[in-house]
Amino acid sequence: MANGGVKSSYWRGVRDGLPFLMVVGPFAVLFGVLATEAGLTVLESLGFSIVVIAGAAQFTALQLMSEQAPTLIVIASALAVNLRMAMYSASITPYLGGLSLKKRILAAYFLVDQTYAAAAIEYEKRPEMTRAERYAYFMGVATPICPPWYAFTVIGALVGETFPPGLGLDFVLPLAFLAMLGPALRTGAHRVAALVAALAALALAGLPYNLGLMVAAALGMLAGAEVERRVEMREAARG
Q: What predicted TM-score, i.e. pTM, was given to this entire model?
């Protein structure tokens, strides 16, 4: 019975993860194309996706690498973009924290926006799940998301190698960011954060190595946090 619960949880996760493939595939192909445009080989593009496995951070790092930014700035910017993963980890630890070290490492590696979102909803909806079933579900969601990210990166890199050098695909990268950003603007705090960050990025565009983006991101997060604080205070006063 336990094994049956684990298996059904895994396949339920696979089913819930499949729709994300419609987003993962095109973005991975785009990353592969832009990576070769930036001078990376197919193998380097694949290695990039395997090591980082985070779309927004990869596109950020790629943009900075294209502009010959120092390695330290590239790493710091990618880490800043991925700070949300720390919040994901803290949120999901009560559900998966008691697993073996090997399983926790795998879960941490595959903890991306899509796996976290699906798992968080499932765990809240099914509080009766055992830890083994939760882990099986999490890995089920990751199955149609993470390995295809690698495969589509290779496809994009192979396609990118057929393009002539200097084709001028720079305009595609901002479009990719806009496509990733749009669905995330769900609340007023999100929209204020995005607006403040965008305006600050324009105002600080003259700073070297795209440091203006890091400052703008920090200002956007502060603005969003302040809006959330005021909303919570208003709701508490009404209660």
A: 0.73
